[in-house]
Write a structure and sequence with these properties.
aminotransferase; Asp_trans; alpha/beta; 141 residues; transaminase activity
Length: 141
């Protein structure tokens, strides 16, 4: 953690850093809660440069067998008041692999930030929903 903190040249304004929240793919190795605390320490430091963590939580419940335990990383960042994104997929955990069911969650530090993010997400959702796949049509058959 100290090496990362001391090398400021690696962290640029408004960078996005990708993290597997649990069940790291392809290794399957998960940091311990203590290791996640150290990772969160690093992110606390680099968020001064508006660096944003982006969690991929596609396999929640698969790593430990517990949905709650597999959310440890995300919960830790939220408890520290950090801003971050969480992409959750329910395709695997709910056995809906062909349906691409999921959500994007954004943890914001203020109501103003949440309003701005909500506005952008609505624009993205409108675009995505205007060009949906054939799932609805297939259900009607």
């Amino acid at each position: 953690a100290e090496t990362v903190r001391n090398d400021n040249s690696r962290w640029h304004q408004k960078d996005l850093s990708f993290c597997f929240g649990c069940a790291h793919n392809p290794t399957g190795t998960d940091p311990t809660p203590e290791q996640w605390a150290k990772i969160a320490d690093v992110f606390s430091f680099i968020q001064e440069k508006n660096h944003i963590p982006f969690f991929d939580v596609a396999y929640q419940g698969f790593a430990s067998g517990s949905l709650d335990e597999d959310a440890t990383s995300v919960r830790l960042f939220a408890e520290r008041g950090m801003e971050f994104f969480v992409a959750q997929s329910y395709s695997k955990s709910l056995g809906l692999c062909a349906e691409r069911i999921g959500a994007i969650n954004v943890v914001c530090s203020s109501a103003n930030a949440a309003t701005s993010v909500r506005s952008q997400l609505k624009r993205i959702a409108a675009y995505v929903l205007e060009s949906t796949g054939s799932w609805g049509e297939d259900c009607g058959k």
